[in-house]
Write a structure and sequence with these properties.
The complex is a heterodimer of chains A (118) and B (459). Chain A is an alpha/beta fold. Chain A has helices at residues 28-42, 62-77, 89-97, 110-115, and strands at residues 7-12, 15-20, 24-25, 49-53, 59-60, 81-85, 105-107. Helix content of chain A is 39%, strand content 25%. In chain A, helix 1 (28-42) packs parallel to helix 2. Chain B has 459 residues and is an alpha+beta fold. In chain B, the strands form 5 sheets. Chain B has a 5-stranded parallel sheet, sandwiched between helices. A 5-stranded antiparallel sheet of chain B has the order 8-19-18-15-16, with helices on one face. In chain B, strands 9-10-13-14-17 form a 5-stranded antiparallel sheet. Chain B has 2 domains: 2-176, Rossmann fold; 219-457, 4-Layer Sandwich (Phosphatase 2c, domain 1), CATH 3.60.40. In chain B, strand 11 and strand 12 form a beta hairpin. The chains are: A alpha/beta (118), B alpha+beta (459). Chain A binds chain B through residues 28, 35, 58-59, 61-63, 65-67, 69-70, 72-73, 90, 93-94, 97-100, 102-103, and chain B through 262, 264-265, 320, 322-325, 327, 344, 346-348, 366-369, 372-374, 396, 399-400, 406, 408.
C-alpha cells in the first residue's frame, strides 16, 4: 500500500526510489507536503542512498531546488548518496540556470542512475 | 374499556393502539370503515375512533352506518380529522359524529377527550328528535340531520380543538420569537466579527505596505549618480512583496557596484530574506557591509566580488531549515578602465551587447546559489568593456517567463530583443525588454518577479 500522497516509493537493493507523482511542483503547499514525506521516508535512515525520479514532473518552481538542496545536504552529511533521473529538458534548464546541474548527480533514467550506486 | 379503531395507516394505528393499551383499554383495529363495522357488529365496542380518509369505506360513511344502526348508535364516535376544510365539520355533523380530534394530536389530549365523552352519557336522540338543521357555511347551504346533544358535543369539541391549536400557535410564535432573537444576536456577533476581520485585514495591508516600502529602499536611489555610465533598471514584483531586488551605486570614486538578487519563492518569507541580504549589500562602510571595508590608511577598500559571495554563503547557511536560498550576480566596475569583475551565485548569465556590433554575448559564470552548499569558495570572472558596451543583469523572471502554453520567453528572444534596441537609448531598451516579457506572459502577466538592470559604459 502506498502511504504517501506526493511520492511513490520503492526499494531496489539499498536504494530508496522516489517517484514524484505531481505534474506541477509549484505551490508552497505541495512543496511542504513533499518535504514532509521525504523526511518521513529517509528521516531515520542512516547514510541512505536515494534516487529521485522526476519523470512525471513537467513544471517545477525554483523553491523546489531549495528543498533538493536541503535533501542533498542532509544525505551527504549522513554519508549517503543522492541521484536524480527523468528530468525533462525544460526542468533541466532550471538546474542549468543555477549551475546546480553541476552539484547534483543527474542521470537519464532509473537504470542509468542505479548503475552509479555500485 | 373496549375501543375500536378504524385507521388505514398501520403505523398510526399501532401508535394509537399502544397508547390506549398503556392507558388500560382493550383495543381492536380495522383498516377501513367496512371491516370496522363488521367488528362492531361482532361485539359492541364502548367507543369508536375513526380516521376519515380510508379505502373501501370512509370515516363519514362508517360513522353514518353506526349512527343509523339502532344497536350501535349509542356508541360515542370520534373522528380523527385534519380539519383542513370547515366543511369537514358539517360532514361530520351530518354523519352523526360526536367528537372531532384534529391530527396531529397529543395522545393525552385524545385520552382526555375519550374520558369526557364516556363520562357524559349520550342522550340518545331517536330519529324523531333529530331535527333537520339548515346551516350556512363558507357561502354554502347545508341540510344536516343531527340531534341536539350531538350538535352540542361537536360544537364543544370543535371549540376545544381550536383552543388547543391556538395554544400550539402561541408556543410556535414564542419559539419563532426566540429564534428571531437568536438570529439577531448571531447577526450582531457576525457584524462584530466582520469588523474585527476588516480591522485585522487593514492592519495586514498596512504591514505589507510598510514591508514593501522597506523593500523598495533596497532599490537604486532616484538621484543616484554613476560616473561615466548610463544606467537604467526595471523592477516588477509579481506580488506586493518580492524575492527580487537590485541596486547600483558608487563604492568609492573609482568603483561602481551593481547586483541583482533573486530569493527563491515569493511573499513574506522571501521578502524578509531579501531585506536581510540587502543589509549586507550596502555601499556604506559599516559593520554589516560586505562590499566595502575601512582600509588601514583610512580610505575605502572595495571587497572583490568573489569574496562577497563566499561571505554571503557563509552567513546564510543558517537558513537550512527554511529551504530558502538566493541567486546573485554581483559586479564591480572599475570606472576609469571599464573592467568589470563579477561573481555569480547560480544566477542567469550576464548579457553584453558590444558597441562595436556583432551579436550579444552571454557570459556565464560558475557558482552555486547562495546558502545552498556550505563552505564553497566562489570564483571571480572579469570582463573588459569597450566604450559604449552595454551589460544587462536580470533575474530568471525574464528568460523563464511563461506564456499561456507554458513556453518560456527564452534566451534567444532575450538576445533578439536587446540586439533590436541597441541603437535606442539604454532606458528605452530596458523598457522594451520589460514590455516584451510582459507581452509574452499575456493574459495573466508574469508569475515571477521581473528585474532588469542595464549599464552602458561611457568613459
Amino acid at each position: 500500500m502506498d502511504q504517501f500522497r506526493r511520492i511513490q516509493t520503492g526499494k531496489t537493493g539499498n536504494v530508496h526510489m522516489v517517484l514524484f507523482k505531481d505534474k506541477k511542483i509549484l505551490d508552497d503547499t505541495v512543496l511542504d507536503e513533499i518535504r514532509a514525506e521525504l523526511a518521513q521516508l529517509i528521516g531515520k535512515a542512516s547514510g541512505p542512498d536515494v534516487l529521485l525520479d522526476f519523470s512525471n514532473v513537467e513544471f517545477m518552481s525554483s523553491a523546489m531546488l531549495g528543498l533538493l538542496g536541503q535533501l542533498h545536504r542532509k544525505i551527504s552529511t549522513g554519508h549517503g548518496r543522492l541521484r536524480m533521473c527523468g528530468i525533462r529538458p525544460e526542468i533541466f534548464q532550471v538546474f542549468k540556470l543555477t549551475n546546480l546541474d553541476k552539484l547534483f548527480s543527474i542521470h537519464k533514467d532509473a537504470p542509468a542512475a542505479l548503475a552509479t550506486f555500485t | 374499556m373496549d375501543v375500536l379503531i378504524a385507521e388505514d395507516s398501520r403505523m398510526q394505528a399501532k401508535f394509537l393502539e399502544r397508547k390506549l393499551t398503556e392507558a388500560g383499554h382493550a383495543v381492536r383495529w380495522a383498516e377501513n370503515g367496512s371491516d370496522a363495522l363488521g367488528l362492531a357488529r361482532q361485539r359492541r365496542p364502548d367507543i369508536i375512533i375513526s380516521d376519515i380518509e380510508m379505502p373501501v369505506m370512509t370515516g363519514y360513511e362508517f360513522c353514518k352506518a353506526v349512527k343509523t344502526d339502532p344497536t350501535l348508535r349509542g356508541i360515542p364516535f370520534i373522528l380523527l380529522s385534519t380539519l383542513a376544510d370547515p366543511i369537514d365539520i358539517i360532514r361530520g355533523l351530518d354523519a352523526g359524529a360526536d367528537n372531532y380530534v384534529t391530527k396531529p394530536y397529543e395522545p393525552t389530549f385524545l385520552l382526555s377527550r375519550m374520558n369526557d365523552l364516556l363520562a357524559t352519557p349520550l342522550g340518545v336522540d331517536d330519529a324523531s328528535s333529530a331535527a333537520t338543521l339548515e346551516v350556512s357555511l363558507a357561502g354554502q347551504q347545508f341540510r344536516v340531520q343531527a340531534g341536539r346533544q350531538q350538535v352540542l358535543n361537536l360544537l364543544v369539541s370543535t371549540f376545544e380543538n381550536a383552543v388547543a391549536k391556538n395554544q400550539e400557535l402561541v408556543v410556535a410564535n414564542q419559539q419563532l420569537a426566540a429564534a428571531r432573537d437568536g438570529l439577531q444576536k448571531s447577526n450582531t456577533e457576525l457584524t462584530t466579527l466582520n469588523t474585527e476581520i476588516s480591522r485585522i485585514n487593514a492592519q495586514m495591508v498596512r504591514d505589507l505596505e510598510a514591508a514593501a516600502k522597506v523593500q523598495r529602499s533596497l532599490l537604486p536611489a532616484a538621484d543616484v549618480a554613476i560616473p561615466a555610465a548610463d544606467v537604467a533598471w526595471k523592477y516588477v514584483p509579481c506580488q506586493s512583496l518580492a524575492g527580487d531586488f537590485l541596486n547600483i551605486f558608487p563604492l568609492d570614486d573609482q568603483h561602481v557596484g551593481l547586483f541583482v538578487v533573486d530569493v527563491s519563492g515569493h511573499g513574506v518569507p522571501s521578502s524578509l530574506m531579501a531585506v536581510t541580504v540587502g543589509r549586507f549589500l550596502t555601499p556604506k562602510v559599516s559593520d554589516s557591509s560586505l562590499l566595502v571595508r575601512q582600509a588601514a590608511d583610512g580610505g575605502i577598500l572595495v571587497v572583490p566580488p568573489a569574496e562577497v559571495a563566499t561571505q554571503l554563503n557563509r552567513l546564510f547557511q543558517a537558513d537550512e531549515f527554511s529551504g530558502l536560498y538566493f541567486t546573485l550576480l554581483y559586479g564591480v566596475l572599475h570606472v576609469p578602465t571599464g573592467r568589470l569583475d563579477y561573481v555569480s551565485g547560480g544566477h542567469p548569465a550576464l548579457l553584453r551587447v558590444p558597441a562595436a556590433g556583432g551579436p550579444p554575448e552571454f557570459h556565464p559564470a560558475e557558482g552555486f546559489p547562495i546558502a545552498f552548499v556550505p563552505e564553497v569558495e566562489y570564483g571571480q570572472q572579469s570582463l573588459q568593456l569597450a566604450a559604449g558596451d552595454r551589460i544587462y543583469l536580470y533575474s530568471d523572471g525574464v528568460p523563464e517567463a511563461m506564456d499561456a502554453a507554458q513556453e518560456p520567453y527564452g534566451e534567444e528572444a532575450l538576445v533578439a530583443c536587446v540586439a533590436g534596441s541597441r541603437s535606442d537609448s539604454l532606458a528605452s531598451s530596458v523598457e522594451k525588454l520589460l514590455a516584451a516579457v510582459e507581452a509574452w506572459c499575456q493574459p495573466k502577466g508574469p508569475l515571477d518577479d521581473v528585474s532588469i538592470l542595464g549599464l552602458e559604459w561611457r568613459p
